[in-house]
Each structure stands twice: as C-alpha cells, then as structure tokens.
C-alpha cells in the first residue's frame, strides 16, 4: 500500500492532501511555507504512514518557480522520510492542468489543487523524481545571474558611449582602439579636457597610454595621434556641461568595472562547480576566442561567450542559444547587436496571424512563415 501526498505550494502556505491507493482523501490541512510548517507536515506524513503501514510514500508538488524548491528538497533529504521509501516529485503545472480537465465540474481552489496532485500521483507513470541535485541548482542560479549581468554590462556600455559622444563626438570615428580598454578608460576618468588632450605632447600622451595600458598597445604613438585628432575635431562644451558629462562618464566607468569584477567572481564560482560535474571540463574551453572585438560596447570587457564548454542540460531547460531573426526591423543597439546572445521562442500560429494582419504600409516587416494551424501538435 502506498501513501500519496499532494501539496499545493504558494509563497506563504503549503496546502496538503493525503490520499490512499483507493483514492480516498482522509486528511487535508494547511501549514506555513517555512521550516516549521514543513517539519509539522513531515511529522503528519510519518504518523499517517506508520498508521496505515504503507510500503512507499509519494509526495508531489507543482514546480512553482522558487516556492516549491525548499519544501521539495526538505522532504527529499529528510532521514525519517527516506527510511519509509519516500519519493518526491516536482510536477510540471501543465501536467496537472491537463489532468484536472478530466474533472470538468471541479472548482479551482487550493485544497482541490492538492487533491488533484495527489490523485495524479495515484495514477502513476511518473518515471523519475525531478528533484534537482544541489550542484545543478547552484549552477543554474550562477549562470542566470551571469546572463543578467552581461546584459547590464552591455546596457551600461551603450549608455557610456552615448555620453562619450557629448564629450568627444569624433572619438569612435578617429580612434580604432576600443574605448573600453584600461588605458583609455583611465584617461577619460581623470577628466582631461579636450584642449588638454589636443595640446599634450604626443610623446607624453603615448607614454601615458603605455603606462596605463601595461605595455599592451602595439603602437601607442599612433593611438595618441588619433586621440589628439579626435579631440581637435570634436565640438567644445561649456564648463558646466563638461563638468556634468565628466561626472557621468566617471560614474559609468565605475559601474562597468564593478560589473566586470562581479562577472569574474561568477566565472570562478561556476568553474568550481563544473569541476564536480562529470563530463564538464572548464579548462578545455579556456582557448575560446572572445565573442567581440573593435569598438563595440561589449568589447574588451566580459566575454559574452562563457569560458566553459557545453554541458548537460538541466531538467526542463535548454542551454543552446537560438539564432537571431534575420531582416527584422528594430532599433539598432550595438551593445546588444554585436555579440549578446538572443534567446527566442518560436512563434505560435496565433502570433503569426496577429503579426500578418497588421497593416505594413510604409514599413518593411518580414512576415511569419506559413504554419498549418490544422496540423496536430506533436
């Protein structure tokens, strides 16, 4: 005999329903979604299992973002439940929604949701328990944070380029070195005026670049001449505007460097976790070439392409980037367009019908491909 425990999870509560193999609901109650509430629920499960002399316990929860992870891991790791051969299932909400359709007259309440989950457990054919290992959860959180920071970095660099145009509008056309290199960022953060740069001796400016760039410039004299040419060709600002732009550029530089440092810390933490995952070898991908070059807003900073190889996908997730849409008109954003990975969702027939029905007068809009809406879904 088995005991089936359906749990409807929310941020505040756990609604539990106990069901036996015959489909009889003999206990339902609510506990807080915290450690004390989960412990109380565990004790009730143990008492019910001992009373019914069950051979196995199946506990099911819907995968509700971050809310279900803590109770699922708690029940999965609890020694008392392990002794009673407990299996914990995190179920796709779509699976429960489709199963509920078989009960056409049932209302939608938390208590009935827990009953439906328990009844779905009773029907079986759930081959695996989808409780992720802790290392995968840790890796998921780190990689998603890295993805978030990379987009923040691209946005911050784009904002920096916009303000740089106020300061020196000819910089990006006259200087072919990345403005986000250490030497040029130092020069801009020290609040040199355009006249100071234009009147500076070329040798002194080249020595400054060589020192700040840690001798990484192949031809600092040529770069110095290009910078001076850009300074002479740029518009001049009033004192009050120039001081404001200098402050904005300095603040933006600090933000960029802070994000770059955070990305390095994340990369180290990710590599430490990958060392413990079979089949993942971080060291083998260190030779991966940078994804960006030139004066792009994401160049010479954190690499968009992470310094680790492909690895097994997590449960229910894809880690392969989809290609960008060709010929789709949109506002140009060099910070993102140059190398940031675009994650796309294939259009549904409804999306295509709505997009193709919009008037395209005076606009060059690429239509969605024809999709057979009558074809059965796979």
Secondary structure tally, helices? 14
Which structural class do the helices and strands define? alpha/beta
Oligomeric assembly: single chain
Series of secondary-structure elements, N-terminal to C-terminal? EEEHEHHEHHHHHHHHHHH
| Mean pLDDT metric | 77
Terminal CA distance reads: 36 Å
Which helices and strands, and how do they pair?
Elements (H helix, E strand, L loop, with lengths): L1 E8 L3 E7 L5 E8 L2 H18 L3 E7 L6 H9 L1 H5 L2 E6 L1 H8 L9 H14 L10 H34 L3 H4 L7 H8 L4 H6 L2 H11 L7 H14 L5 H36 L59 H4 L11 H9 L21
Parallel strand pairs: 1-4, 4-5
Antiparallel strand pairs: 1-2, 2-3
Short synopsis of the structure:
25% of the residues are buried.
What do these coordinates show?
It is built from 14 helices and five strands. With 378 residues, the chain is an alpha/beta fold. A five-stranded mixed β-sheet has the order 3-2-1-4-5. The chain is elongated and about 90 Å long.
């Amino acid at each position: 005999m088995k005991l089936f425990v359906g749990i409807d999870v929310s941020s505040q509560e756990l609604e539990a329903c106990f069901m036996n193999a015959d489909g009889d609901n003999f206990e339902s109650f609510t506990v807080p979604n915290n450690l004390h509430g989960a412990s109380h629920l565990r004790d009730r499960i143990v008492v019910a299992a001992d009373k019914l002399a069950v051979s196995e316990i199946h506990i099911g929860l819907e995968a509700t973002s971050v809310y279900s992870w803590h109770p699922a891991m708690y029940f999965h790791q609890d020694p008392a439940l392990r002794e009673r051969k407990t299996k914990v299932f995190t179920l796709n909400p779509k699976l429960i929604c489709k199963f509920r359709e078989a009960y056409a007259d049932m209302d939608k309440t938390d208590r009935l949701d827990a009953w439906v989950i328990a009844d779905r457990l009773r029907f079986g054919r759930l081959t695996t328990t989808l409780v992720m290992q802790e290392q995968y959860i840790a890796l998921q959180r780190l990689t998603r944070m890295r993805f978030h920071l990379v987009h923040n970095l691209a946005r911050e660099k784009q904002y920096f380029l916009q303000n740089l145009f106020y300061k020196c509008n000819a910089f990006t056309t006259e200087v072919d070195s990345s403005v986000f290199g250490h030497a040029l960022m130092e020069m801009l953060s020290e609040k040199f005026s355009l006249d100071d740069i234009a009147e500076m001796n070329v040798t002194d400016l080249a020595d400054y670049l060589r020192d700040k760039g840690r001798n990484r410039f192949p031809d600092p004299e040529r770069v110095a001449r290009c910078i001076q040419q850009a300074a002479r060709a740029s518009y001049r600002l009033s004192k009050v505007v120039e001081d404001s732009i200098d402050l904005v550029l300095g603040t933006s530089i600090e933000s960029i460097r802070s994000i770059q440092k955070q990305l390095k810390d994340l990369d180290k933490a990710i590599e430490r976790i990958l060392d413990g995952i079979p089949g993942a070898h971080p060291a083998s991908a260190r030779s991966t070439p940078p994804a960006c070059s030139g004066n792009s807003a994401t160049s010479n900073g954190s690499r968009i392409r992470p310094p680790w190889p492909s690895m097994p996908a997590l449960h229910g997730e894809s880690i392969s980037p989809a290609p960008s849409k060709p010929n789709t008109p949109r506002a140009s954003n060099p910070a993102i367009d140059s190398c940031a990975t675009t994650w796309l969702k294939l259009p549904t027939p409804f999306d295509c019908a709505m997009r193709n029905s919009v008037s395209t007068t005076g606009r060059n809009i690429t239509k969605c491909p024809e999709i057979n809406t009558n074809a059965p879904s796979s």
